[in-house]
Amino acid sequence: MSDVAKNLSAADKETQANYEKLANVIDLYSGKEGCLIQVLHAAQEIFGYLPFEVQKFVADNMGFSVSYVSSVSSFYSFFSTTPRTKHDVKVCLGTACYVRGGKLLIEKLQELLGIGVGEATADNVFSIHVTRCVGACGLAPVVVVDDDVFKQVKPADIAGILDQYRGE
Amino acid sequence: MRVNNVNDLKAIAEKYNAEIGKYEHTIYVCGGGGCISSKCQDTKNFVDGYIKEQGLSDKVNVIFTGCMGTCAMGPVVLVEPERVYYVHVTPERAKEIIDRQILKGEVIEEYTFFDANLNKHIPCIDDIPFFAEQVQIVLNKCGKIPFDSVEAYIAKGGFTAAAKAFTMTQQQIIDEVTASGLRGRGGAGFPTGIKWSAGMKAQGEHKCIVCNADEGDPGAFMDRSAIEGDPFCLIEGMMIGGYAIGANNGYVYCRAEYPVAVERFNKALDIAREWGLLGKNVLGSGFDFDIELRIGAGAFVCGEETALMNSIQGERGEPRQKPPFPFESGLFNYPTIINNVETYYNIAEIINRGADWFAQYGVGKSKGTKVFALAGDVINTGIVEVPMGMSLRKLIFEIGGGITDGMKFKAAQMGGPSGGCITEKNLDTSVDYESLTALGAIMGSGGLIVMGENTCMVDTARFFMQFIQDESCGKCTPCRVGTKRMLEILERITQGKGTLEDLDTLEELSYTIKDTAMCGLGQTAPNPVLSTLANFRDEYVAHIVDKTCPAHICSALAHYYIVPEKCKGCTLCARNCPVQCISGKVKEPHVIDQDKCIKCGACMTNCKFGAVIKK
Question: Chain B neighbours among A 1-30 (CB < 8 Å)?
Fold first, then answer.
């Protein structure tokens, strides 16, 4: 077997395992009413995002049409239909962060990474997102990278924050 | 173990109190949202390890609590019995605190709370105005007990209110809540007793009780702190509500942006089930009650009660036309009562201590306390709970410690995108539902953003409209299209392209949207614009007529200048200017060509001598 074939089958196996995991989640919720959003959360957790195939799998296994599942997944900002970058850089623009200069942080990030909000770097390491209040208003302005919250960030701190994630 | 009655509760409380009573010292490490971001887990781990290493485990109790309130000073630590309050406690500082405070009884003053107004450190928590001026009913256990211990909650009187409620009739509970004067803390202020009464009278095979924990107003983090710090209190409040209206199913809808709250509440649910505090025959009362946690997925409109119910049902979070009201036909079409997190946190105390006790706090038709999230340009950012009727001045300047960076106060924004601003001349207004509404602001859910003089109010209005435009679900035209038009006008004004007629159009659109939008989101969306127009019309006029932004925030209206006296002629600005509009010889002052300048601010960011200014 060539290396390529080996890799392919490993990837396939992983996908297969992911679908099994998702099927288990759907089973778990089967007795309860109205759990589509909770299942989509789990699916996104497992696959990293919600491609068409995953939404179709959810639809088929929960007795919905794909268009219905898509109508729900597209309504909520948490659900993404494109793959995530390695690190999500989220700048909070809730009121407190906005008042304390969140806008300047976005500008600095755009300048340093050379991409706009909602875009990913060419190497797929970083993407910039705007988030509306993470409830850390006492620490404004905040930047959230993946799940790490950085507090009272100044534009000059941005480069250092990015560096912490570059090598990983 | 299973809790079957009040005696079991008493036994658990006694055992727990005896257990914690044997320690000489207690170190409370705050595990609230703000402190987590300041790496309090490292401090907690260090303290645990160091106490063990020093052989102090039987003398010093270490407790990981919910939010203590001063979120910008994390990680914070309280040492008892001395009640010394330490801030910014890194593991290094924690070592010193244990070595000196715990072992030698020395207070390390320079690590204690610094009061900017009094310009000194205040070691004892009870002497700090930020804490001393508060009255805590909702937060009376938050930050004082380990958030994951049901025994600690019971030791503080937890679940005795539920046990008492089960000996009362449904009507008696509702009468007590009505008499207390408790009103919905989500913002609208509807009397809770009247709502519950409608829920009790509603006919239905099943009924539901729902908690709205979709704390979406940007700048609000009260509910998050309450759930993270004292999750069992929410369970107890909902349980009493469920019993009062006859609902066996409770749902908590929490926003996905609060993973810590989700995790801690889920854990609390598991523990409560294990102890017989949820499930069949709760507390041996014969009443069955359980709660399910449903997580949102990032949609502000889901804080609107009917949209929230659709979202719990797994659907798009679009609001429903009312009537029918939720108490008639709500979640899964069952009669449903929905209250805000903070409302439920008042219930146990009202049942335990009585309506009269509760009603002693507050003024007029606003009884009890209100929790606020202080944020923005205020020194002591964090969570505070004050009796209704306190003046905003006291709240912002005494408890909040005043404005940061020596700035002048400009406005306090209350109620988020549905609210309005209060200016200097109304700072002595009493914080209660009626007084705030009369000023064109609202109580709101408790987000209180303080704005200093460097905030542009037109830009703030634009910010909120942008937020609403992003979050409008699109179901009704006034909100979907109306807010878009309003945003476009506001953008024009902040770019210096507005006309005075635009102000009339803004007002007209505002009133039309308020009258015709389908749900609360749309109906209140114009409030920030109306409020800033009423209080800061001169700023709008300055943008339109003078083409200037008085606060120097709106970049399109800003002009960058180089101060010749400060410029060293290093050429850094000229090299970084994307449109090559800066000229000058090396070692000589440079000049910006105002006609070519695109106002990107690159020169100002790059100047090492502070020679570039914005006017």
Answer: none
Question: How many whole angstroms separate alpha carbon B431 and alpha carbon B445?
Answer: 13
* Assigned token pair, B263: 């995790």
* For residues A74-93, average pLDDT: 90
CA distances for B338 relative to A60, A99, A143, B76, B183, angstroms? 33, 32, 33, 35, 13
User: In this predicted structure, what is the pLDDT of residue A30?
Assistant: 87
Out of A34, A138, A142, the one facing B312 most closely (by C-beta) is: A34
Contact B447 A79 (CB under 8 A): no
State yes or no: ipTM above 0.90: no
Whether residue A80 is contained in a domain is answered as no
CATH architecture of B559-614: 2-Layer Sandwich (3.30)
CATH code at B150-358: 3.40.50.11540
Task: Say how far apart CA A122 and CA B492 lie, in whole Å.
Answer: 34
pLDDT tens digits for range A106-161:
999 999 999 999 888 998 899 999 887 787 887 889 999 988 889 889 999 999 99
Q: Do B37 and A151 touch (CB under 8 A)?
A: yes
Q: What is the pLDDT of residue A6?
A: 58
Task: Please give the C-alpha separations between residue A56 and each of A51, A52, A64, B98, in angstroms, as whole numbers.
Answer: 9, 6, 9, 57
Say which amino acid occupies B486: M
The CATH H-level superfamily of B16-131 is Glutaredoxin (3.40.30.10)
Which of B216, B295, B314 lies nearest to residue A34, judging by beta carbons? B314
Q: Residue A93: closest CA among chain B residues belongs to which residue? A: B218
State percent of chain B over pLDDT 70.
100
Residue A132: which of B218, B311, B332 has the nearest Cβ?
B218
- How many independent structural domains does chain A possess? 2
Taking the C-alpha atoms of residue A56 and residue A65, their distance in angstroms, rounded to an integer, is: 8
Residues of B in contact with A99 (CB under 8 A): 376-377, 449, 451, 455, 460
CA distances from B352 to B33, B229, B238 (A): 29, 21, 15
Task: Say if A150 is an interface residue toward chain B (CB within 8 Å).
Answer: yes
Interchain CB contact of A100 with B (< 8 Å) = yes
Domain boundaries in chain B? Answer: 16-131, 150-358, 363-452, 457-546, 559-614
Q: Which fold has domain B363-452?
A: Ubiquitin-like (UB roll) (3.10.20)
Contacts of B470 in chain A (CB under 8 A): 132
SS3 A127: strand
Average pLDDT over residues B282-304: 95
pLDDT at A3: 52
pLDDT at A167 (0 to 100): 73
Kindly tell me if the per-residue pLDDT of B51 is higher than 70. Answer: yes
Q: Which residue segment(s) compose the domain that A19 sits in?
A: 3-73
Which of chain B's residues have a Cβ under 8 Å away from the Cβ of A133? 216-221, 257
Is residue A94 less than 8 Å (CB to CB) from chain B?
yes
Q: Does A33 touch chain B (CB under 8 A)?
A: yes
Average pLDDT of the residues in B437-459:
92
- When mean pLDDT is compared across A68-72, A100-104, B387-391, B597-601, the lowest value belongs to B597-601
DSSP B307-350: HHHHHHTTS------SSSPTTTS-GGGS-EEEEEHHHHHHHHHH
CATH fold of B457-546 reads: de novo design (two linked rop proteins) (1.20.1440)
Does the predicted model carry a pTM greater than 0.80? Answer: yes
Q: Are residues A122 and A160 in the same domain?
A: yes
**How many interchain CB pairs under 8 A, A with B?**
152
Of A73, A108, A130, the residue that ends a domain is A73
- The nearest CA of chain A is from the CA of B382 a distance in Å of 5
Angle at B7 between CA B4 and CA B8, to 5 degrees: 50
